[in-house]
Specification:
Mean pLDDT: 84
Number of helices: 2
Strand content: under 5%
Number of strands: 0
Helix content: 25-40%
Largest sheet: none
Order of helices and strands: HH
Length: 51
Amino acid sequence: MPSISDYYNFAKNNILIAFFFDGEHSDYHQPSDTAEKIDYALLQKRATMIF
């Protein structure tokens, strides 16, 4: 479950939100969660789909 974020108050007040998430991994939200762990090809594919 994602941590409370900027969309929380919208959802709490029954305002529709869209939350796109690619899952957690062992480094998620840790200092070791660095940019080189991003799959940029997959990120581009998802961003295109969302757009």
